[in-house]
What we know:
The protein is mainly α. Helices cover 39% and strands 9% of the residues. It has helices at residues 20-31, 54-70, 91-95, 104-110, 113-117, 122-131, 150-153, and strands at 36-39, 80-83, 134-135, 138-139, 147-148. The strands form two sheets. Strands 1-2-5 form a three-stranded mixed beta sheet. Strands 3-4 form a two-stranded antiparallel ribbon. Helix 2 (54-70) links the parallel strand 1 and strand 2. The longest helix is centred in the middle third of the chain and has 17 residues, at 54-70.
Amino acid sequence: EGQNGRTTVFADPVEGSKSGLAYLEPCLETANPLQAVVIMLGTNDAKDRFGCNAYQISQSVKRLGEIVRRRDYAPYQKPELLIVSPIEINGRILAENDDQNFSQASAERSMDFSGHFALDHFKIFNHVQNILPVFHVHLHRAVALVTPFNHLTGN
């Protein structure tokens, strides 16, 4: 379930209840059985107020993935887990940033996502998001490249 402004693990002091970590367990419980879980978080963690670098953001996404993986889904099978890499915050996103959540420093931090998410398709995904209509950092069309969780964790 998507929520505008959601972070991986952080309570947002400005926008309130936005932590994916706080929301994940209840969501998994009420939605069971699941065929797949897709985690597409991390871009909002690059906001200046969180002060996170790309490594810290990737570790936060990894933590969410580990929760999904370790959870007991009995009597059902564990769902597939897919991670969608955060996008790089580009000039167009900064220009459309009317609420001033992202800065040039946010954009610079986001440029390092690919090094920490270890996704083969990261640069392709960022190229796609540069040519598709984007409202801030949310894709309007159902186009996303995903990777199995083990590409993030090395397992």
